[in-house]
Amino acid sequence: MNIFVGFGSAIEALRANKVRTALTILGVLIGVGAIILLVSIGQGVKEEVSGEIKGLGSNLIFVMPGSGGKGAHRGPPGMFGNKITYNDILAIKARSNINLKVLPLMFTSLVVKHGNKSRQSMIYGTTEIYPEILNQKVEEGRFFNASQVNSQRKVCVIGKTVASDLFVSKNALGNRLSIGGQKFLIIGILESKGKTMGQDQDDLAIVPITTAQSFFGKTSIDRTAIQAPSEDRVEETKRIVKRILLRRLSEEDFEISDQKDILEMLQKITGILSVALGGIAGISLLVGGIGIMNIMLVTVTERTREIGIRKAVGAKEGDILVQFLIESVMLSASGGVAGIGLGYGGAFLLKRFLPTAITPWSIFLAFGFSVFVGVFFGVYPASKAAKLDPIEALRYE
């Protein structure tokens, strides 16, 4: 049987039942679109977070609250209370025998207000080296200095979102901002960083850590970034920091990690996420394949006399098998192509809210899987059609 004749016959057969064809394609379309969209979200998250981490430098380590337990009793960081204080962090710099840059960070969410406008924003308490360590530029004004940290000055540096939302018609610089009911002088506006994982990185106000402790009643340190002298001294730095903290805290009270540890954990999480999401979408595609098999079985039944006539005039079993297999593959492949468009369009629209990244391998994988589904679920109906007895088929009403 000429393959082109087979394709022509398949197209005519599919066009004869447009509604049935469209509904059958829909199942595969949704499955392929879901695979591409969900994998693109997983890949996008991985690329965005990896870029953020790498942008901070490879010689950075982090100290975070511990899980407060061991083995089966371990939980998320800080689950059983955060015992790390500002004095613990000051001890790291004071007692280290190598030159370390230590940046403590405390977070809280408070209402910021100017005039009759207000919003709930993240408030960071930190020190003067924040821009240097976390690669954050000040677009207008300046960041607070060590003297303002030591004297608990009520000054702040705000993000673009806070500035644009609360100061619509005037420059925020030099104005007063109410943070948690306390008045702060705005001395700087940060350069915009946009969104990460759908979270606005510009919706924040940064104040001296001593001021945050004094006026907001927060004493624990949520995270500490420590810059080692060089990348090859990261492990040495981790050992020194651990030794100093163990003199003040128990081993369960803190956790130390570097950029490599974070990236490895991220790769594991996103890998599991991509496989899980892809698996869910794959199940949807398999359901579409079952739909193809059911429709092809109905088609074989409806065209029993046609099959009998074709066999009577000399068509071989292989010719019938190929024709129905082509129809099945065309159904799934059409759904695959449409699904690629759906997944690509969905990823494009979602990019405003979530990081997405469509990779060529995900497109080839999804389309290849759709063709495989057409072949796999089309073999049984096609073989059933090929094995029909021509005499019995001609008698079929």
UniProtKB/TrEMBL annotation:
Where does the ABC3 transporter permease C-terminal domain lie? 280-390
How this chain sits in the membrane, per its record, is: Multi-pass membrane protein
Cite the InterPro entries for this sequence.
Answer: ABC3_permease_C (IPR003838), MacB_PCD (IPR025857), Macrolide_Exporter_MacB (IPR050250)
Spans traversing the lipid bilayer = 21-41, 272-299, 320-346, 358-380
The entry's keywords: Cell membrane, Membrane, Transmembrane, Transmembrane helix
Q: What is its main location?
A: membrane
**Where would you find this protein in the cell?**
Cell membrane
Extract one GO cellular component term from the record: plasma membrane
Domain MacB-like periplasmic core per the UniProt entry, residue ranges: 21-243
Offer an example of a GO molecular function term for this protein.
transmembrane transporter activity
Which Pfam families does this chain map to?
A: FtsX (PF02687), MacB_PCD (PF12704)
Q: Which family does it belong to?
A: Belongs to the ABC-4 integral membrane protein family.
What name does UniProt use for this protein? Answer: Multidrug ABC transporter substrate-binding protein
Q: Per the UniProt entry, what species is this protein from, by scientific name? A: Candidatus Desantisbacteria bacterium CG1_02_38_46
